[in-house]
Specification:
Shape: globular
Organism: Cereibacter sphaeroides (strain ATCC 17023 / DSM 158 / JCM 6121 / CCUG 31486 / LMG 2827 / NBRC 12203 / NCIMB 8253 / ATH 2.4.1.) (Rhodobacter sphaeroides)
Protein name: Succinylglutamatedesuccinylase/aspartoacylase
Domain Succinylglutamate desuccinylase/Aspartoacylase catalytic: 52-238
CATH class of the largest domain: Alpha Beta
Radius of gyration: 20 Å
Order of helices and strands: EEEEHEHHEEEHEHEHEEEEEEEEE
GO molecular function: hydrolase activity, acting on carbon-nitrogen (but not peptide) bonds, in linear amides; hydrolase activity, acting on ester bonds; metal ion binding
Number of helices: 6
Largest sheet: 15 strands, mixed
CATH topology of the largest domain: Aminopeptidase
CATH architecture of the largest domain: 3-Layer(aba) Sandwich
Binding site for Ca(2+): 62, 65, 148
CATH superfamily of the largest domain: Zn peptidases
Helix content: 10-25%
Number of strands: 19
Strand content: 25-35%
Length: 346
């Protein structure tokens, strides 16, 4: 476990306490064969005016997740100090090496930074970057919105997400923030390697933490970008950082966000063998227990019949497999159901 009190090796000359707009870079050391004193520049924009809450917006934690990078970059260019009462810290491109290689994992050390928190200033590049976020940036925040999509791994129905929180007050504040963001769904989930994620670091500090899943399949989701841009403005309104009331009406006619959950292991459809997966449903479609989720085909084996996979829970498909080829142990679908505030103790 890293010492969060250890000094970060990443340099940043932005004065986070100064009023006005500042745009610059955090510089993370990265010695390379052709640049012994090389650095990686991570864009940061801070807009501050007087006293008030601090909203932290992060995108590009995974390099192949685009909608948050676009939405936060757009806001960082447009937001002006006179519009703000408080502070907005925007990092649209956190994991720059992964962004430039269009990959989930960092090409520098092969790690998923979102499994490296709270990080280590003397560790690998991803661990060093995770430590900077946890020890330098995060303590300033009153709310964190960490924008993700399903990358190349999956497709996802546009949604916010949060962990199930044992603290009822923090849980209520997070649910309220999700309603303000205004995605079609907000998914409360648990049991997914929480301890080493950025979200877990936020929660351990008692700070409201929202994630998003706004598309996937390795392309920019047009509706995901729209929802993301509107959502972060809605959060600023919800926190009183900018004027206005959150706009939460859905294109399907609903007045606001539908709270969902992924609570049990049987919400996941797992691949028991490696092969070519043929799904039967798109994300956002309703499914029933016992209905066919898809087939795994073994095209390399003559006359081998495909293996049928079944849903084990009623609900709506939250995630669907991205690549056709799947590996034994992969989740090929995740089913969400309507939220229930009564959760078992794990």
């Amino acid at each position: 476990m890293a010492n969060s009190e250890a000094k970060s090796r990443i340099a940043c000359d932005i004065d986070f306490d100064r009023d006005g707009r500042q745009a610059g870079y955090a510089r993370a050391p990265l010695s390379r064969n052709n640049s012994g004193w090389g650095t990686v520049e991570i864009p940061i924009t801070v807009v501050k005016n007087g006293s008030g809450p601090t909203v932290l917006l992060t995108g590009g934690v995974h390099g192949d997740e685009y909608e948050g990078q676009i939405a936060i970059s757009d806001l960082a260019r447009r937001l002006r100090p006179e519009e703000v009462q408080g502070r907005v810290i925007m990092l649209p491109a956190v994991n720059m090496p992964a962004i430039q290689s269009d990959t989930r994992l960092s090409p520098v050390d092969g790690r998923d930074i979102n499994r490296c928190f709270p990080g280590d200033p003397r560790g690998t590049f991803s661990q060093m970057l995770a430590h900077f976020l946890d020890s330098v940036i995060l303590p300033m925040a009153d709310i964190s919105v960490d924008m993700h999509t399903a990358g190349h791994s999956y497709d996802s129905t546009p949604s916010t997400n949060m962990h199930y929180l044992a603290d009822p007050a923090l849980r209520a504040r997070t649910l309220a923030a999700a309603e303000a963001f205004g995605a079609p769904h907000n998914v409360v989930f648990g049991g997914v390697d929480e301890g080493s994620t950025f979200t877990s670091c936020v929660e351990r500090r008692g700070i409201v933490s929202l994630g998003t899943e706004l598309g996937g399949w390795g392309r920019v989701n047009i509706e995901g970008v729209r929802i993301g841009k509107r959502g972060i403005l809605n959060v600023l309104k919800h926190m009183g950082v900018i004027e206005g009331t959150p706009e939460t009406a859905q294109r399907g006619g609903a007045a606001g966000t539908r709270h969902m959950m992924v609570r049990e292991a049987d919400a996941y459809v797992m691949a028991p063998r490696t092969g070519l997966f043929e799904p039967t449903h798109y994300v956002g479609e309703e499914v029933r227990t016992g209905e066919t989720a898809g087939w795994i085909h073994f095209v390399e084996d003559v006359d081998t019949a495909p293996l049928e996979l079944l849903y084990r829970r009623d609900g709506i498909v939250w995630f669907g497999a991205g690549p056709g080829r799947v590996t034994r142990g992969d989740a090929v679908a995740v089913v969400m159901e309507d939220y229930n505030d009564t959760w078992p103790q794990h």
